[in-house]
Amino acid sequence: MKNISIAAVVAAAIAVPAFAEDRAGWPESFTVGTASQGGTYFAYGSGWANLVADELGITGGGEVTGGPMQNMALVHTGDAQFGMTTMGPAAESLNGTNPIAPGLQMTNACAMFPMYQTPFAITTLKSSGIASIADIPAGAKIGFGPAGSTSDTYFPRMIETLGIEFERRNGGWNDLGTQLQDGLLDVIAFAAGVPTPAVSQLEVQTEVNFITFSEEEQAKILESFPVAPFTIPADTYETMTEDAQSVSMWNFAIANCDLPTSFVEAVVDVVMSDNERMKGIHKAARSTLPENWDKNNVLMWHPGAAKWFTENAGADIPADKIFSN
Question: For this UniProt entry, which residues form the secretion signal (predicted)?
């Protein structure tokens, strides 16, 4: 037994990256700000939080929040060590236009690693007869997710740009899915990584329509908002029969800028060093790849994250883009 124990200790020591051996200043526990249950943020964020906790031997987990805007605020203040955000809400938070704390420039939230693109997608019940954006009737009740989320921040403006009149509704994705089934909503406008758990649950329980953007609608949105073209593949959902054209924003994990360099570097290493393991947490992680470091053009980099991407992904991150006290 003694020999086995010694071997295990030696093996563990070899497996721990050199930068993780220095744990000076590391927190005893950590929290990852995610979003509402039923959305991709919650599933993805809780997954990598648990993975990091297991690999580094530290207590940590995901926390339900209002999404990217609130996560920027929580990480900036240090109430959460980590969080997740899309680039649009990140830019607004840096500029002091985050509705949670108007006027506060949230500059103490740093980029940590690329996650995935968030497509903007519309789902209705097949029984509604709504098969396109143009079919959405004036005054339709549309659920946009939690107040302050990426979806709630941008999708109403997009729908208005396309000339649709609607009544705005907010709530967690699971709750909105139930309201759609109960006839309390006409449409749900999702901004979440795909497959979105709430949509996967909906298609098991009832027949749904996956609404695609027409070329003209997509072009109008691309002209007006900080988004990129995106195609939701037909195999994303069990009952989806063809690709859906959409638009998307990139998501990044964020860290409080004051966290120790070695701690953040170790966290990034756990997440970025094994993509197959991340895809096991959520399919959206197929884009959680080192080469996507360059999709951050908004946030300052945490020094620990910048060090990992520079040494392991050949990233060329300018010194003036790395946070420094």
Answer: 1-20
Give residue-wise pLDDT tens across range 235-294: 999 999 999 999 999 999 999 999 999 999 999 999 999 999 999 999 999 999 999 999
Phi/psi for 62 (5° steps) reads -85, 155
- Least Cα distance to 135 among 151, 144, 118, 122 occurs for 122
Mean pLDDT of the region 225-242: 91
Radius of gyration of the chain (CA): 21
How far apart, in whole angstroms, are the C-alpha atoms of residue 319 and residue 303? 10
Q: Taking the chain, what is the end-to-end CA distance rounded to the nearest angstrom?
A: 49
User: What is the torsional sign of CA 255, 256, 258, 263?
Assistant: negative
Q: Which domains does the chain have, with CATH numbers?
A: 26-116+251-321 (3.40.190.10), 118-249 (3.40.190.10)
Q: How far apart are CA 33 and CA 41, in angstroms?
A: 9
H-state helical runs in 16-99: 40-56, 68-77, 87-94
E-strand stretches of 147-264: 166-169, 187-191, 208-211, 228-232, 244-256
Instruction: Answer yes or no: is pLDDT of 156 > 60.
Output: yes
List, for residues 59-96, the tens digit of each pLDDT value: 999 999 999 999 999 999 999 999 999 999 999 999 99
Given the structure tokens 């497509």, which residue do they identify?
119
User: Helix axis angle, 215-224 relative to 150-161, nearest 10°?
Assistant: 120
How far is 271 from 130, CA to CA, in rounded Å? 40
Give the separation between CA 138 and CA 105, rounded to whole angstroms. Answer: 38
Q: What is the pLDDT of residue 16?
A: 54
